[in-house]
Amino acid sequence: MKPRNYLPPYRGARWGRTIRFLLHASVFLAAGGAPALAVAEQLRPEVESFIGEMVARHGFEQASLAHIFSTVQFQPSIITVMSRPATSRPWYEYRPAFINSKRISGGIEFWNRYGGILEQARKEFGVPEEIIVAIIGVETMYGVQTGSHRVLDALATLAFDYPRRASFFRDELEHYLLLGRERSADLADLLNIKGSYAGAIGVPQFMPSSYRRYAVDFDHDGKIDLTGSMADAIGSVANYLKSYGWEAEQAIVLPALVNGEKYRAALFAGQKPGYSAEEMRKLGIITRTGFPLGRHATLIKLENADGNEYWLGFNNFYVITRYNRSVHYAMSVLQLAEHIRTARIFSVQQ
Ligand SMILES: [Ca+2]
Fold it and tell me: Which of 139, 174, 182, 247 is catalytic?
C-alpha cells in the first residue's frame, strides 16, 4: 500500500488513525508564509479515475465529486473487521445473540406499535408480519442500531482499500452517489448519512443498490426514507422479499431427519431448492410432516451442542437468504419470527 501524506490540520482533521483520501495537499503560502485557505488537493489516482467514470457515465460535476471525496476518511477499522477470516460459529453459539427475551419482547412491542402498517405490507406483498418484524429485529434491533459509520467513508474505504471485494463496493459507491442525486438536490447530504461498516443504510440495512431497486414509499409522502420512516422500512423489507420471489402462504422450513451419508448432497450452499420429496427420500432425508406437493427443497444443518438438527428449506427460505446469505441468519430470522408470533398471541390473550 502506498504511503499517504496527511492533510494539514487546518480543517480540524485529526492526526493519527484518521487518514484522508488525499495523495497530497499543497498549501499555497500567502505573504508572510502563513498557510492560505486555498488548497490544491490531489486525490489518489484511483479516486480520480472513479470520479472521471461517474462524470462520463452519469453527468456528475467533476468539482462537486472532487470536493466530496476530499472529505472522505479512510477507516482502517473497517478493513480490520472485513479481513477477519469468516469464522462460522456453530448454531448453538450464534443463536442466543438473536433468539433472546430482549429481542422477542422488542418484536412484540414493534408489532403492536406498527401493526396496521405491517398488516398492510402483508396484504400487498404476501409477507407475514412476523417475518418483517424479525428481519428488522435482527438487522437493527427494531431500528435502534442502524450503524455509526459515515456511509461514504465506509463505501470508499472498501471500494479503494479492500481489493478482495473492490468491484462490489465500487458498484455500491456508484449507486450511493446516484441515490444521493435522486433523493436530494444537494450531493453534500451524502456526507451526513450513517450506516453499518459495510455501508448498509437505515432501519432495514439496505445496501445502496437495493435501496435504489427495492425501497418503496410506503407512507406515500412522496419520498423514500429508510432512516426516518418506519412505514417505508416495513414496506421496503416486504417488497424486497416479494421481488426475490416470496410466495404467500407457502412453506418456509420443515423439520427433517437424515439417515446414512447421501443426505450431504442436498445441503444448502446458496443454491435454489432443487430436490423433490422423492429425491429427498432417496438421499435418506425424511420429514415427519407432509412435504408440500410438487415443491422442492434443500437441506439445512444446524449444529447443536448435543448433535445436529436438520430442516428442509423451501423457496421462501431461499428468499430470506437473499437478504443475507448465511443459513444461521435465515434460521434466526425464522425462529425469532416464530417466537414473537407465539409470544404475542399469548400476551394479547392475557
Ligand atoms: Ca415515505
Answer: 139
